[in-house]
Amino acid sequence: MTNIPFLNFFPAHFSIKGEMRDAFYRVYESSWFVLGKEVEQFENAYAVFNQVDYCVGLSNGLDALHLALKSLNIGVGDEVIVPSNTYVASALAVSYVGAKPVFVEPDLITYNLNPDLIEAAITSKTKVIMPVHLYGQSCEMEEIMQIAQKYNLYVVEDNAQSQGAKYNGKLAGSWGDVNATSFYPGKNLGALGDAGAVTTSSYIIANKIKTLRNYGSGKKYYNEVIGHNMRLDELQAAFLSVKLKYLKKWTLERQQISAWYNEALFGVGDLILPYTHPKATHVFHLFVIRTSKRDALQEHLNKNGIGTLIHYPVPPHLQKAYEHLGFKQGAFPITEMISESCLSLPIWPGMEKNHVDFIVNKIKQFYGR
Ligand SMILES: *Cc1c(COP(=O)(O)O)cnc(C)c1O
Questions:
Q1: Which letter, b or e, does each residue of 183-202 get, where b requires 16 or more Cβ atoms within 10 Å of its Cβ?
Q2: 354 CA distance to ligand 1 centroid (A)?
Q3: What is the mean pLDDT of each run of 10 residues along the chain (369 residues)?
Q4: Calpha distance 317→135 (Å, rounded)
Q5: Relative to the CA of 182, which ligand 1 atom is closest?
Q6: Which value, to the nearest 10 degrees, does the dihedral of the CA atoms of residues 190, 110, 99, 327 take?
Q7: 107 CB under 6 A from ligand 1?
């Protein structure tokens, strides 16, 4: 039986095996494993890629969001506007610094934070808007930046899923005061373990985060603030430098696979296909469809050896961890509707047209044609 996993690293990793081995040996032989020239080189290369002045390599995406908020002195008594349909990490970072996540519904068409709903959520305590570029599509950043300017708020982008996506020609991760991204293995740019970074064009913020990631110490054994150990490893940086060179190529592959899906699935059953805003680009971290028969379709595909996932089955406001915020089912109906109807189909660099054809045929079979 054909087996198409939801995610398959093998083709992409096979094609760069030699370079990855060289990267490993370079670090191995250098005997320097934490905060050295590999991290510095990757930070410089990623800053160039993201068209910002600074990138600071960190332990993971959640820590990057956390330190981004901390570098802006966000804390107890502050409110941060977060989309209600996001991975829980966006909200967790807000909770870490002692601030309150204030959820705002997405646009049902793009699944991204709806700029028209932001103003109603702003209070005298609001300090930050945190747009999350979900699934690979950039949020409507011009509109969001205008609101932030009007109310004098910071912007912290969560760009874990949209490395290389643009809005009106400008890259996600380059709009906010300081922005976070994740190099979790399954992300578009993934390390071989946990990793993340912030991107910013502020020298002051970049330096503050460099201190915070390293025990609050700028100079060894001298601690200016109570910091963390949230550093990017040399080894992960070396792997990421190799993979960064291929990110554009792999993104084009994701976009090609999405085009195949979109063409073949148009008008099939009650499927709602991904929509890309005319001013945005989509790097298809995930290919998310919606259907009222989601659970049955997922089971049908699973029986046919096709891996799918749900992003995300329980929105942050309905998680047990956020019980104390007091939200009940129905509090954010658009988000809940998305979580009840969405299904992510396999998409990974190296996936071929015949894989897509096989999946499409099984979906058509489900809808009885
Ligand atoms: C993956 C992800 C994160 C967290 O990144 P980690 O590196 O796993 O900590 C945060 N926000 C979003 C939207 C993500 O997809």
A1: bbeebbbbbbebbbbbbbbb
A2: 31
A3: 91 97 98 98 98 98 98 98 97 98 98 98 98 98 98 98 98 98 98 98 98 94 94 98 98 98 98 98 98 98 98 98 97 98 98 98 93
A4: 19
A5: 7
A6: -120
A7: no
